Structures are given as structure tokens and as C-alpha cells.
Amino acid sequence: MKRIMVIGVSAGAGKSTFATELGEILRIDVYHLDALYWRPHWIEAPFEEFEEAQREIAERQTWIIEGNYSKTFGVREYRADTIIYLELPRYVCVYRALKRWVMNLGKTRPDMGAGCKEKMEWKFLKYIVTTYKDRRRKMYKRFKLWNASGKEVIVLKSKQEIRSYLQDLKAKQNQLNKQLS
Questions:
Q1: Most buried of 20, 84, 145, 178 (most Cβ within 10 A)?
Q2: Which of 5, 9, 7 is nearest to 94 (CA)?
Q3: Which Gene3D superfamilies match (predicted)?
Q4: Where are the domains of the chain?
Q5: Residues 138-149: tens digit of each pLDDT
Q6: Of the candidates 2, 151, 152, 153, the residue with the CA atom closest to the CA atom of residue 64
Q7: Whole-angstrom Cα distance, residue 3 to residue 38?
Q8: pTM for this structure?
């Protein structure tokens, strides 16, 4: 596990938090796609620049790239050895998106582009609710392709599964570190 894509069914699934914790455990740099995509004041980066930034990261020996942006999966997936997919229930994703907005009002989160203060739009909430099932269905089709190409696909469907996965990985890393010292 050296080049990891962290993706999720929706905004609010916990991708950024999970990727940050995973990076700390594995001691691998984490790259947030929102930080690459959004310029100050919510200006979108040109697609070619966004794609090229991902390509440069993907060429590195180790990385965790967090975020969906499915139109650029191809830039990352060819080098990824592990894909971790977070699929929390739709109501949890909506709740977390709203909570994140309230908790970060007037601030720019560390996983966002500089100068992109937290905001909430009805269109965004509607997107989470109305596209959830279709995005989940499409993702499972991708899993078959990724598995067939030798990539490890890990699906975590609850807070408990996520917590357990990270705790187990941390214990394994600690044991490995003890063996190496």
C-alpha cells in the first residue's frame, strides 16, 4: 500500500478526515483534490492544469490522493495500488456536509483551496441526495475493473468499519516499526 486513492460515495462520507489519518499512520503525504481544483474565491482551475497536477503527484513513489472527481480517475488509477472507498449512508453524508458547513463558517478548511471559505448551497445538498444511488452503482462497476487489474479495493460502510480499519492498520504499523528498530 504505497499509492492510495481515497474516494467515497458522496461529499460528507469522510474522505478528507480518513485520508489525513491514514497518511499519519502510514507516513505518506496526502493530497486533497479540492485543494488542487479550487482557486481562491471558488474559481475552478482549468481542467488541463487540474489533470496535470494529479499526473505529477501520481508519478511519485508514495501518495494518498483524496477526492472523487471521477472524470480524472484515469490519471490516478493506473498508478494506484489500493483504492479505499467510503460508503456511508446518504443521511450521514447530508448530516456531515451540513455539520462541516456550520463548524467551518467563515473559514477555509485545510483540505480546500486557499481562499475558499466554507459555504453551503442548496444545489450541493440536492446533488448529494439525488445522485447517491447512481454514483454508488457506477462505483461498484469500477470495482470489478480495478479488481481485475490487480488493485486492492477496500470498501468501508460505517463509522465503526472505518475506525476499526484505521485502528488495525495503526497496530500493524506499530508492530512493524518495533520489528525494524
A1: 84
A2: 9
A3: P-loop containing nucleotide triphosphate hydrolases
A4: 3-171
A5: 999 999 999 889
A6: 2
A7: 23
A8: 0.93
